[in-house]
Design a protein that fits this description.
The protein is mostly beta strands. Helices cover 0% and strands 51% of the residues. Strands 2, 4, 5, 6, 9, 10 and 11 form a seven-stranded mixed sheet that branches. Strands 1-3-8-7 form a four-stranded antiparallel sheet, with no helix packed on it. β9 and β10 form a beta hairpin. The radius of gyration is 13 Å and the shape is globular.
């Protein structure tokens, strides 16, 4: 069965950095695009980064990120990462790893990121 497990969240000061790993299992990881979403309190879940199967780094990003985040993947170890730099209080949210397989969305449990001084 498909499993996605995020980690790496926590409390960070404005301007700081975090790296979120997501461990994937139960499917042929290297053949699927991977996504990161986030959901702030009281707001809808938003797609923030996408990486295609064959791309090791780089991808497509939500414009409001202003180039501060980078998505990457390690197909040998079934991992996808979100590097977040220059964090702002408005980046506070639960961050989710996602993949779409046969029209079914699969989600991890999410990891909380709080940006506050």
């Amino acid at each position: 069965q498909v499993q996605l497990v995020e980690s790496g969240g926590g409390l960070v000061q404005p301007g700081g950095s975090l790296r979120l790993p997501c461990a994937a299992s139960g499917f042929t990881f290297s053949t699927f695009a991977m996504y990161w979403y986030r959901q702030a309190p009281g707001k809808e879940r938003l797609l923030i980064a996408t990486i295609t199967p064959e791309t090791r780094s780089g991808g497509h990003y939500a414009e409001f990120l202003e180039g501060r985040f980078t998505i990457s993947r390690d197909n040998a170890n079934n991992m996808v990462y979100l590097q977040m730099n220059s964090l702002k209080p408005e980046d506070t949210a639960v961050y989710y790893c996602n993949t779409l397989i046969v029209l079914t969305n699969h989600w991890g449990q999410g990891t909380q990121v709080t940006v506050s001084s």
